[in-house]
Amino acid sequence: GQDLEIKFVLPSPCDPPSSIAVQVLDEASQPVSGLNVELYTGEGTLAVQTLPESGLVVFSQLGAGDYGVRVLGSASCALLPDGFVYQDGLIVGLGQDLEIKFVLPPC
Predict the structure, then answer these.
(1) Across residues 81-104, what is the average pLDDT?
(2) CA distance 65 to 98
(3) Strands 97-103 and 65-72
(4) Fewest CB within a 10 Å sphere: which of 13, 46, 63, 81?
(5) By the 8 A CB rule, do 50 and 34 touch?
(6) Could you tell me the end-to-end alpha-carbon distance of the chain, in angstroms, rounded to an integer?
(7) What is the CA radius of gyration of the chain?
(8) What CA–CA distance (Å, rounded) separates 53 from 30?
(9) In this structure, are strands 36-41 and 18-25 parallel, antiparallel, or unpaired?
């Protein structure tokens, strides 16, 4: 018979972390600030960050996995309920950096 060699590659603590950057713009392509952006998985919420003036948040130090991000609504915008703007099914590999851009509808 033939010899069969099987190799398993397991993630190590030295594997580079991944990140997801989320840019939020208004319909005029201007950055939106003050809203919260949530990072989640099927297990629940992992982190929430408030958008700064740049309209950009970065969720870093992520392991490989299936993530989602959503923009949480603001009391000043009745047309933007919590989680109305979202993207899930973001499959992140080791050392991979994803960039997501949302353009919010007018209030």
Answers:
(1) 87
(2) 12
(3) unpaired
(4) 13
(5) yes
(6) 70
(7) 18
(8) 10
(9) unpaired
Q: Which residue is associated with the tokens 């919010």? A: 104
Would you say 18 and 25 are in contact if contact means Cβ atoms under 8 Å apart?
A: no
Residue 6's SS3 state is coil
Question: Among 31, 12, 10, which residue's Cα sits nearest to residue 21?
Answer: 31
Our CA angle for 49, 50, 53, nearest 5°, is: 130
CB neighbours (10 Å) of residue 51?
A: 19
pLDDT tens, 7-63?
666 655 667 889 999 999 988 999 999 989 999 999 999 999 999 999 999 999 999
> Given strand 97-103, what is the order of strands in its sheet?
56-62, 18-25, 97-103
Share of the chain above pLDDT 70, in %: 81
- What is the distance between the alpha carbons of residues 51 and 13, in angstroms, rounded to a whole number? 30
Q: What predicted TM-score, i.e. pTM, was given to this entire model?
A: 0.80
- Which of 65, 72, 105 lies closest to 86 in space, CA to CA? 72
Q: Which amino acid is at 49?
A: Q
